Amino acid sequence: METILVTIDDKVYRMACDKGQEDHLTKLAAQLDQYIRHLKNNFGEIGDHRLSVMAGIMILDEIEEIKREYKKLQESHATLLQKNQEQDRHMIQIVQETTKRIEKLTQELRKDAHSLNLQ
């Protein structure tokens, strides 16, 4: 475990994290600091606990919005995948029908060529 110092709302906190996660944790702390500063700018000094709760709710609201967007993207992806599969089946059918027509025409041409050679 590694130990780093992060600053949130002008207060320094010592935090532990896995080795290699120091930058990630520092960025997360900076984001939380931004939320708290935003709230302080809008509501003033309303207490650390209340600021933390409000910041947590804002973050959870953003997470929920991202989940909703992700679900919509999954549904769109499923719809597009289904349409793509239907188009693939249709194209396979067209290729098969075209192949049969070409084979039939080839047989007819061979018959015509054979009958021309016999005459």
UniProtKB/TrEMBL annotation:
The species this protein was found in: Bartonella bacilliformis Ver097
Compartments, record wording: Cytoplasm
Protein name: Cell division protein ZapA
Job of this protein: Activator of cell division through the inhibition of FtsZ GTPase activity, therefore promoting FtsZ assembly into bundles of protofilaments necessary for the formation of the division Z ring. It is recruited early at mid-cell but it is not essential for cell division.
Keywords from the UniProt entry: Cell cycle, Cell division, Cytoplasm, Septation
Main location: cytoplasm
Domain of life: Bacteria
GO CC field: cell division site; cell septum; cytosol
Biological processes annotated in GO: division septum assembly; FtsZ-dependent cytokinesis; septin ring assembly
Complexes and interactors: Homodimer. Interacts with FtsZ.
Record-linked Pfam families: ZapA (PF05164)
